[in-house]
User: Which sequence fits this backbone?
């Protein structure tokens, strides 16, 4: 069953406007690091999951963590490179310093820094920051999303046959996810690849219609939720369920915290198109234990 995407969600009563300023400061801090290393010589290491990592990934996440420890020491942090640091309350920052490391290391300015603030597992604030192109998307629950401070809206497109689709790479799909994705790919007007988080920004700005991806982790998509919703779009897992993150306390490692959560994301600028595509995906995942 497809869950409805609430158009009337509200911020938590204890949300502070300063959190928005902090999110922008985090993006600024990460951007200083990534801009310094972009198209410069550096070593590329391989992580245990065979994905690449650079000094820019690690230094930019450390810069964001350092800032958070100073301004909101009671908040939790979950980052791609250094795992989970528990907070004493309901707020957790979920950060990906360089989403699109392969783009970054090959000099393509379509990577981005992803910053999300979650309240009890629900994303209420999100930023996509592209420091080279100097583009920053901001989404806050219940408010219009912006690109560089100007309000943005998704565009209407109810028919998959008219839709422009993005996914980072066809290699992110295999087995049953590939079968489901291919049904959508074959139905749209034009499928395209290679934008990482930047594709979601394009969707929010009304420049494309669909992003359908798999093999993602919570830090890859939590920041996208408030941005897409605040621009009038819809974003869920492939079953139409809301994207939330409420991990177990048993294992604080980043690998454990990223497991057991939807790796499949479907975003659409048009809510009707989103529902059509969810039905087209007809996704039946293996059991997910939260």
Assistant:
């Amino acid at each position: 069953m497809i869950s409805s995407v609430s158009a009337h969600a509200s911020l938590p009563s204890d949300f502070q406007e300063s959190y928005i300023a902090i999110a922008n400061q985090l993006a600024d801090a990460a951007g200083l690091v990534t801009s310094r290393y972009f198209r410069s010589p550096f070593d590329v290491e391989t992580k245990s999951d065979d994905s690449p990592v650079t000094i820019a990934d690690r230094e930019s996440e450390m810069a964001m963590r350092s800032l958070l420890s100073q301004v909101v020491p009671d908040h939790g942090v979950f980052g791609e490179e250094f795992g989970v640091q528990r907070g004493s309350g309901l707020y957790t920052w979920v950060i990906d310093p360089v989403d699109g490391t392969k783009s970054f290391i090959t000099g393509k300015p379509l990577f981005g820094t992803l910053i999300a603030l979650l309240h009890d597992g629900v994303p209420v604030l999100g930023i996509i920051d592209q420091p080279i192109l100097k583009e920053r998307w901001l989404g806050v629950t219940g408010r219009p999303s912006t690109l560089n401070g100007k309000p943005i809206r998704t565009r209407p497109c109810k028919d998959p046959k008219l839709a422009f689709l993005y996914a980072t790479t066809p290699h992110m799909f295999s087995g049953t996810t590939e079968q489901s994705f291919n049904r959508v790919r074959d139905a749209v007007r034009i499928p395209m690849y290679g934008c990482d988080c930047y594709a979601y920004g394009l969707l929010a700005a009304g420049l494309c219609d669909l992003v359908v991806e798999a093999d993602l982790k919570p830090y890859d998509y939590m920041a996208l939720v408030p941005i897409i919703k605040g621009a009038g779009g819809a974003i869920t897992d492939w079953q139409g369920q809301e994207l939330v993150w409420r991990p177990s306390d048993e294992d604080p490692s980043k690998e454990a915290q990223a497991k057991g959560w939807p790796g499949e994301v479907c975003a659409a600028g048009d809510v009707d198109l989103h529902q059509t595509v969810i039905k087209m995906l007809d996704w039946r995942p293996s059991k997910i234990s939260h």
Residues 18-37 form the longest helix (20 residues). The chain is about 30% helix and 25% strand. The first strand starts at residue 44 and ends at 46. Residues 1-8 have pLDDT under 50 and may be disordered.
